[in-house]
Amino acid sequence: MKSVGIIRELDHLGRIVIPKETRVLLGIHMGDPLEIFINEEEKMLALRKHVGVACKMCGAVDQLTYFRNSFLCSSCVHDLKEGKNCLQYAEEESAQTEPKERRTTRNSDELLGELKVLMAKHPTYTQKDYARLLNTSQPRISQLKRLMQE
Predict the structure, then answer these.
(1) Could you tell me the keywords of this UniProt record (predicted)?
(2) I need a labelling partner for 126 at 20 to 30 A (CA). Which of 12, 49, 54, 104 fits?
(3) CATH 1.10.10 describes domain 108-149
């Protein structure tokens, strides 16, 4: 067993706080059950995250199979084999959607000319409106307006 050099005192109710670094290292989250082990000879207390004997997916306790550090019931195994109640990975879904249209790069003179035309047609529009119409960002419109003033 390894000593990490962390010392904690019991509070007035006999409780102890497990440091966050230790919980993260051991994969212990709020509400996780812990097993307590006692070695009377060495007066040592040990804690371990409890792995319950129940189906990881539905919580059933009958007809369990141990697979990759988890218990699965026969019903869930059957459903997995048939693909029932399964969702596609987000990566597969995003691959099926159309890619977003990329902005085209235009030089300042070109954008400046288009902005002047838009400002003449629509003098009450905001910078955000101009940015949307020119397919650029609002800060870029602000830069172009400053260039116009110079």
Answers:
(1) Plasmid
(2) 104
(3) yes
